[in-house]
Amino acid sequence: MVLLFCAVPILWAAITDFRKRIIPDWTWIAIVLFGGISAFLLPHPTLPQRIVGFLLPGVCLFILALKYGGVGGGDIKLTSAIGFCFGLYGLAAILFFALPPAYIYAKATRQKSVPLAVFLCIGFFVYMGVFIC
């Protein structure tokens, strides 16, 4: 399945975000490319769902970054790329599994900024295990 190819860039983004607090550009670009390929091969999510999944988190996270800080540009691009690849509903499910552990980690370590790609990776693998397999 094409969407399983997203595992490598998401995992690499998580590793580098945890170690260096940076998300390489090739990771989100690869995810968008896999999403584009899957748009032609899979009927779901539909193209409008993919577009909304790309735009909505990007705009929301960008506004949060401007207002409060703590959200990096790499996090915004990676979340938007995942939204394009999996559509709005898939992204919502991934965030459902990603954000509670991110919140717990932030509270436990008393950090305002967390390596979001790590938790997006966790959410991605739980999503793939629960909904795809």
Automatic annotation (TrEMBL):
One protein family per Pfam: Peptidase_A24
Listed transmembrane segments: 26-44, 51-69, 81-106, 113-132
Keywords attached to this entry: Membrane, Transmembrane, Transmembrane helix
GO molecular function: aspartic-type endopeptidase activity
Residue ranges annotated for the Prepilin type IV endopeptidase peptidase domain, each copy included: 6-104
Source superkingdom: Bacteria
InterPro entries reported in the protein's UniProt record: Prepilin_IV_endopep_pep (IPR000045)
GO cellular component: membrane
UniProt protein name: Prepilin peptidase
